[in-house]
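User: Hey, quick favor. My workstation is busy. Could you predict this chain's structure for me?
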Amino acid sequence: MADFLRELCGVDKVIIGGVHLLPLPGSPKYDATAGMKRICERAREDTMRLVEGGVDAILFANEADTPYQTRVGPETVAAMTSCIARVMTEIAIPFGVNLLLDPVAGIAVAKATGGKFVRGYFCGGYVGDMGIMDTRGAEALRFRRFLGAEEVKLIHNLTCAFGVPLASRDLLAAAHGAIVHGGVDGITVSGQAAGFEADPHSIASVKQVSGPVPVLAGTG
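Assistant: No problem, here it is.
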């Protein structure tokens, strides 16, 4: 397994810029007056600024659709697909999708829009702000195969920004399991919550067991 991010972006240290979409149709905070037009305008503005700033790739996320669902509705899939497709007509760099908290739907959006990777939870189980979360990794891998979307790589969130693992495994064992049994293509190590710095020592430790699988710092 090669470091797909290095091959995709052509640099050793990849910087992925996050574009957080405004609340999408169906979510509690959706602004029906401004509608999809404003969502797409903001996404385009943010994407352009990140590209001008020199990022190597973009990650689109429905960050404002709290509280998150492990199975989103068709309205979320349709809105996110439409917005990304519009924005990316003007952008040439690679991009990915983070559809919280439904990695299966994220794969569908990535396949439809030309996304190169999906960030999500693909292994283990968690409990926290969103209740008990089953990561649906087996379903995601099978769905990717069903779509013929093996070119869409999976980046696993090894640490949860809004909860804790149900199992008391150490970080290195969880990383090894995600790669060997979960079949993920990349790993993200994040801080304890959004905006908190990821622990550099944890990142370095995970990299020691990840082999060619890329390890990223998330949040913070």
